[in-house]
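Much of our argument rests on the idea that a fold can be written as discrete symbols. Part of our work consisted of pairing the sequence of a single chain with a tokenised description of its backbone. The amino acid sequence and the backbone structure tokens for this protein are reproduced below.
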Amino acid sequence: MAPSSPHLSEVILEDCDLRAARVVVELGAGTGAITSVIRDRIGPQTSFLALEIDEQHVRRLRDRFPGVQVCHESAEYLGDCLARHGHAAADCIVCGLPWASMSRSTQSRIMEEILATLKPGGQFCGFGYVHASWHPSARAFRRTLRSNFPQVRISSIVWRNLPPAFAYSCL
């Protein structure tokens, strides 16, 4: 997969008020394509944590974004990571995780962490690839979103991303 395009990053974050957020978390920061846009949009007092499990990506992210707290951590330990950095919850969680390729048990563990650490009224957003949207685990993930968030918005397809993708935003 190619890194997310600036077009996809814009669609993912279009409804997020990152400037007013106290704590923003990115799950699966990868190469930093979305990290860069988040960093440019947060307020001066916003704490920004980016979680990534790939050690090579972690090193690159730390070099590229010295002001971002990059955690070499699985999203399954989001609560622990927030606590280590002095936070109980996040105002916004931006997700770049490959939900369609995860088992349902892994999805459940990560979603439990997201729900436990997202402030009341907080926002959860991310993206999925169009070609994977038919996969059973992708469909299960959409059902999970709808059962846990009163509002789930799915964008139109972002064709200017390789591969084409869509964004979701949950409140």
